[in-house]
Here is the input.
Amino acid sequence: MQALWLEENQISLRAVQQPDKQNEALIRIRKAGICSTDLELVKGYYPYTGILGHEFVGEVLIASDPSWIGQRVVGEINAVCGSCEACLNGRPTHCENRTVLGIVNRDGIFSEYTTLPLKNLHRVPDSVSDEAAVFTEPLAAALEIQQQIQIKPTDRVLLVGAGRLGQLIAQTLVLTGCNLCVVARHPHQQNLLSACGIHLITQDEIQPRKWDIVVEATGSPDGFNLARQAVRPRGTILLKSTYKGEMNVNFSSIVVDEITILGSRCGPFEPALRLLESKEVDPTVLITAQYKLEDVLKAFEHAAQPGMLKVLVEP
Here is the structure.
């Protein structure tokens, strides 16, 4: 089969063997999405060799449980052991032996087929299109914020960054009724947020040390610096960015101001699918272009352009 291969920070389309893992379902990829993590992996944010990609919707072809065969599915990206200390204590996404789809020791989904354990799979409701379902994983990541911290209607919430993930974070946060403002750099990003009734704010308009909660989703150290300036004493910064390399941070000021900093990663799939089914969130407005797998290198070039939102790939 054809697949997008990453090795030594270079991507190429190559022929690879069809996956065949014992006790895992074989899934035919219907659509896959390029996300910022994929682009950062190419830049070298984390040492990975293999097939890239983790956002997908597919169809189960082979499974140990026949009821799954023919089902349209999305899949959680962490394959876990179930027996380590983290798994046994309810932290499976931090499994000590985990593999991560297209990121850590597990081939991803920019290919014709992939495999995952059945326990990782979620059925896609019939009313949810492939174009919407492919956003389930990043939408779940957006919802993880509300798993980690209670957001009240009275909270002043600032979202810094309105790219692929930031748009989904904004669409989910606005449902809480909080006083939400978003910093968006590019006109297309701004137009999408305005169409959802989400309030925009420029960097110059941000009141320093006034925001109860600041969500940082720029992927840039400058975004963290802005978040730090904006959050009030005893406020909370939620980090969605994965930065390559190290950052200089004044931790003394964080201690003095008693700032809470939370890293935020993977999230709950079932609530994400319910939001898609109810159409309370519409991620399809983020789709900029769709490419065939044979043109995946062009797709990555397109996705890497400044301000670009979601580029999809299909076999």
Notes: The two ends are 10 Å apart (CA to CA). The chain has two domains: 2-123+282-314, 140-263.
